[in-house]
Amino acid sequence: MAIALSIEKGPHEGLTRPEILRRLRAMIKLLQLDKAEVSFVLTGDERIHQLNKIYRGKDRPTDVLAFAMHEGEFGALAGHLLGDVIVSVPTARKQARAQGAPVLEEVTMLLAHGLLHLLGWDHETAAKDRRMKAETARLCAAALEPSSRATRSKGAADPGLSRKRPTASGAGRRRKPQ
After folding, report:
1. What's the topology of domain 2-167?
2. What is the reported pTM?
């Protein structure tokens, strides 16, 4: 597995590169994406706002964007390259604060959510939203384990509808299991 992690405008309090990479590896292992290539970027609101405006036509920052390489006209040429997940640290921090949770927990959830979008998962219907939240929670649980022993579930390869544009999760949604 090849993981690229870029942290812009850091360091960010509560987020360390080694811990984020460990969590990403655990999630990717759980999904059995051993040959996958994926990049993750932690950035600021300004950059994600710009990307959200250009690629989704939404003139505001968001918490996470996912750019899947397997979509569109040339998606079949992507091979093992899954795509890019971009997370806004300031937005994640605001959401974590609103929930009384550590920023690392929120960033982990957003990375998992974005990774699922790269695999084709979506939350356009209530049923798909429930399934995606459950799978996101499963990935987060695996990421929290010091050494992931989890195995792939049947649902891990069951994507939702594909998209031609990058997706965003939408700031302020509740998705933390109680």
Report:
1. Collagenase (Catalytic Domain) (3.40.390)
2. 0.82
